[in-house]
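We emphasize that the prediction below concerns an isolated chain of 133 residues; any contacts that depend on oligomerization or on bound cofactors are therefore not represented. The input was used exactly as deposited, without trimming of termini.
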Amino acid sequence: MADATYLAVMAMTGDTAPCGGSPGCIEVLGSGYARIAGLPVAVWGVFGYFAAFSFATFAGFGYRRARELFAWTVWVIFAMTLWLLFVQAFLLHAFCRYCLFSAACTFLLAGLVVARPRPPDSEEETPDPEEET
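Result of the prediction step, given as a token string:
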């Protein structure tokens, strides 16, 4: 989330992110693909990461719906990440270090969603008292 926040602030203030002499980074961040609906992609990333963090926190406290929303949010972020990696590799032929770091974090989140143990279904575990009579 810090990576996306940094890039969002840089884009919104008009500053150029220091890319360490990587011309590909500047090309990616300045391309037409770097904005969706007039907002920098990094701003959408901040919203996505914040939502994922919030849902994960609530899921940690046992809210089942938050657990489902966390998984859906991560899959949306993951799909967007795959699209942006495609754009960098095949359309722009340039890569951004910040974007690759964000992609690595997204792949980690997706791995956690896939590897997480499923909670037992409370409806299956609790017998219905009316059925026993």
